[in-house]
Specification:
Blueprint (H helix, E strand, L loop, with lengths): L41 H11 L13 E5 L4 H11 L10 E5 L2 H4 L6 H14 L1 H4 L5 E3 L2 H8 L3 H11 L3 H7 L3 H6 L8 H24 L6 H11 L2 H12 L3 H19 L6 H13 L1 H14 L6 H10 L7 H4 L8 H20 L5 H20 L15 H4 L2
Parallel strand pairs: 1-2, 2-3
Length: 402
């Protein structure tokens, strides 16, 4: 809905547009929207690659994480994701989320189109090639989400009129765009209004909205807005941005800084920088946050001999589904601190036993030790409240460990 005037400048004279907006979500992150990598204009594609640091030039990438929009997985998509990952700091897919855009078009506009898109996204998530390149693949119907957020009362009234019309006549209209917008009909929605509805909802959004009104699920404009928003796939994407990206913001920014440092050290390997190189290697090898990221990458590649249940638990504890303690420990966000503390201790004991089990391979033992350290941090970070009427001290870390 934002209209930007370039003040007489040509597009090729503009390097970037910076827009500030009063949104709480934007207080924790800056979103950079680039042109498509396969744009009709070669210059637009080159500028997008330059911003993302995938053009092979000296200029460093200006992004800490990427939300990559695609219609289907094409060779160009895989090449970009491989390039973004294949850099001096061995960037891992912890900083990349793929979005299956226009999810409503996957099922050709049918009412179950988003279910079809979800199945396609699930198949992509199980593809070992994509698992090594991005955290997850999320289906999102962008048009539906935008319409849900800006739905007007007059649009809801028009949808209600369509929902109350003869079923056969409505199905006749909803065959093609030309018929829906231009055909003669007894339904009291004029062609201009129908064209506007099609532009705002698309065929999928129209069919879904009519179905929701007919079934009584959406009896008001506000209810229809909520239902469309819930089905558009926007909530999982928001959760991924806040939990997987904003929740790891410090780590992602630190990795970007180390990436820039490594590039400088490789380009100018002067003797005076030897101490800096040593410190860089010490940080990247010893920082537990980076060890978690490396282990997450190993889990996605399926290189550890763990059971499926253990892999799922390890991925969650390491923050693959979000960095918050309640997410890592799979407990209710509203649970009391005592319950959270018990869950942390249970996870700690589980991975301590796995680390010491005689049948564990060396790789599994090393992975379990990383998980033990993560769980120790969770135990210390979610101490229970002292019981009322007592002055018992909280147990030290050594007293917790068996």
């Amino acid at each position: 809905m934002l209209d930007v005037s370039l003040g007489g400048l040509r597009a090729d004279e503009v390097d970037r547009l910076v827009v500030d907006w009063p949104s709480a979500a934007l207080s924790t992150m800056t979103l950079v929207d680039t042109p498509g990598l396969d744009s009709l204009s070669t210059e637009l594609s080159r500028r997008a690659e330059s911003t993302l640091g995938t053009d092979g030039e000296d200029e460093q990438a200006e992004v800490d994480a990427v939300v990559y929009l695609m219609r289907h997985v094409h060779g160009s998509d895989v090449r970009f994701l491989e390039t973004f990952r294949n850099d001096p700091a061995e960037r891992r897919p912890i900083n990349t989320i793929a979005v299956l855009g226009r999810a409503d078009e996957v099922g050709h506009g049918r009412v179950d189109a988003l279910d079809s898109a979800a199945r396609v996204a699930a198949r992509y998530q199980q593809d070992p090639r994509l698992q090594a390149l991005c955290q997850t693949v999320l289906p999102v119907a962008g048009l539906l989400a935008a319409t849900a957020a800006t739905l007007r009362e007059d649009e809801f009234r028009a949808i209600t009129t369509l929902a109350r019309a003869d079923e056969a006549e409505l199905e006749r209209l909803l065959v093609t765009a030309a018929r829906f917008t231009g055909a003669e009909t007894d339904i009291a929605v004029d062609p201009a209004c129908r064209a506007a509805l099609l532009d705002r909802f698309g065929f999928f959004g129209l069919r879904l909205s009519v179905r929701l009104v007919q079934s009584g699920v959406a009896a008001t404009a506000a209810a229809l807005s909520r239902e469309l928003s819930a089905r558009a796939g926007l909530a999982p994407l928001r959760d991924a941005l806040t939990g997987r990206f904003a929740g790891r913001a410090d780590v992602l920014k630190a990795r970007s800084a180390l990436l820039a440092l490594d590039a400088v050290l490789q380009r100018w390997p002067v003797p005076a920088a030897a101490g800096l190189r040593h410190e860089y290697e010490r940080i990247t090898a010893g920082a537990h946050e980076f060890a978690e990221i490396r282990l997450l990458d190993t889990l996605r590649a399926g290189a550890l001999m763990l059971t499926d249940t253990e892999k799922t638990a390890a991925y969650r504890v390491l923050g693959g589904d979000g960095a918050a303690p309640v997410t890592r420990l799979a407990v209710d966000p509203q649970c009391p601190s005592d319950e959270l503390h018990r869950a942390a201790i249970a996870a700690l004991v589980q991975w301590q036993r796995r680390a010491e089990h005689p049948s564990s391979t060396r790789d599994v033992r090393e992975a379990a030790r990383v998980l033990v350290r993560t769980c120790e941090g969770l135990v210390l970070g979610v101490q229970p409240c002292p019981r009322a009427g007592t002055s018992e001290p909280r147990p030290a870390a050594e007293e917790i460990l068996p």
